[in-house]
Amino acid sequence: MNRSSIHDIGVLASDDTFSLESGRLSARSSTDLISCDSDLVLLFTSGDVQVKTGDRIHNVSAPAQAYINTGVTFELIASGSDVSYLTASCPAAAVNSSPSHDSKVVTGGVTILRTDRYDRFPDSGLVRGGMFYLDEGKVATYHSHDAAAEVFVFLKGDCDAKIDGVTERFTAGEVLYVPAEEKHELANVGEGRLEVWLTVTPNVTPSHTFYEEQSNGTWERTTPRLDGLNSRPPTA
Q1: Is the domain 128-221 a CATH 2.60.120.10 member?
Q2: Cα 219 to Cα 215: distance, rounded to the nearest angstrom
Q3: Given 24, 32, 75, 217, which residue has the most CB atoms within 10 angstroms?
Q4: Cβ–Cβ under 8 Å, residues 62 and 120
Q5: May I ask the CATH architecture of the domain 6-113?
Q6: What is the domain partition of the chain in residue ranges?
Q7: pLDDT tens, residue order, the chain (236 aa)
Q8: How many CB atoms lie within 10 A of CB 5?
């Protein structure tokens, strides 16, 4: 099972469709002016930060999340404390230095979202995701995503994650990467609500593939494929 921690330095998970990387800013420091040829989604896990574009400044206190449209030039400025954050590029692409801010951001720009409610990224063919919650004792439906990987960042609670029949325990601060086509299920095994930040890239239709358990203990998909590819045979 592919797992890492938000406290690790560098790339935490990546494939052809996305890359998830950790970042740090010391108090009162800033990034360069940057942009990306992909959509970016950011999760701020600690500290106070400004997200600055050519025409506005967003003041953000962690925990919080942000969605930044393809090509938007921005910088991150740490306020009076160190800042820790994760950046997912969807699809995977390098973040580039920019010589100057755009005079005005006219398409989308930066969307700041909360982490204490069911806030989702704006609709995009490149990425789907945002906050996911699971009440105490609940289990999410076993499913997979055709041609799309999913990454989970656990923010609060204890979770048993089952990936193609294998179960492991995850706690706050850990990251789980699930490749495309692999069945997965989250179970809240702790006290209180399970809180998870997730991304699915790309955002394909149908968004979920569901399964029916067979008499021999394997699972067979019930959602038809729309991409013309062969389905995997029934598996654990």
Answers
A1: yes
A2: 9
A3: 75
A4: no
A5: Sandwich (2.60)
A6: 6-113, 128-221
A7: 899 999 999 999 999 889 999 999 999 999 999 999 899 999 999 999 999 998 889 999 999 999 999 889 999 999 989 999 999 999 888 888 887 777 666 566 899 999 999 999 998 889 999 999 999 999 999 999 998 999 999 999 999 999 999 999 999 999 999 999 999 999 999 999 999 999 999 998 889 999 999 999 899 989 988 777 777 766 66
A8: 13
